Amino acid sequence: MRVEILTPETKLFHGEAQAVLLPGIAGKLEILENHAPMIAALQKGNLEITKNGKKSIIEIQDGFVECIQNKLSILVAGGKINE
């Protein structure tokens, strides 16, 4: 699936991923390929992207995620890549 992570200042990530683990406000959310359409609020925490068996961690502030037609758009107040 295509994943894009944006802050007001920059694009933190843009590319393909097999799975994304997100810190939702009601608990962790894992999005896999062909997930049903959804929108959810996010809280401060670690976002984990799995690509080709390798995991990357991005520390994010609060924000929102939209999943539609195998595209994941994540909008956050701020973030830092912690590969």
Keywords:
ATP Synthase, domain 1, five-stranded antiparallel sheet, mainly beta, globular, single chain, five-stranded mixed sheet, 83 residues
Account of the protein in words:
Helices cover 0% and strands 69% of the residues. It is mainly beta and 83 residues long. The strands form two sheets. The chain has a five-stranded mixed β-sheet, with no helix packed on it. A five-stranded antiparallel β-sheet has the order 4-3-6-7-10, with no helix packed on it. It has strands at 2-6, 11-16, 19-24, 27-32, 38-42, 45-51, 54-60, 63-68, 71-76, 79-81. 22% of the residues are buried. It starts with a strand and ends with a strand. Strand 6 (45-51) and strand 7 (54-60) form a beta hairpin. The protein has one domain (2-81): F0F1 ATP synthase delta/epsilon subunit, N-terminal (ATP Synthase, domain 1, Sandwich), CATH 2.60.15.10.
What's the topology here?
Elements (H helix, E strand, L loop, with lengths): L1 E5 L4 E6 L2 E6 L2 E6 L5 E5 L2 E7 L2 E7 L2 E6 L2 E6 L2 E3 L2
Parallel strand pairs: 1-9
Antiparallel strand pairs: 1-2, 3-4, 3-6, 5-8, 6-7, 7-10, 8-9
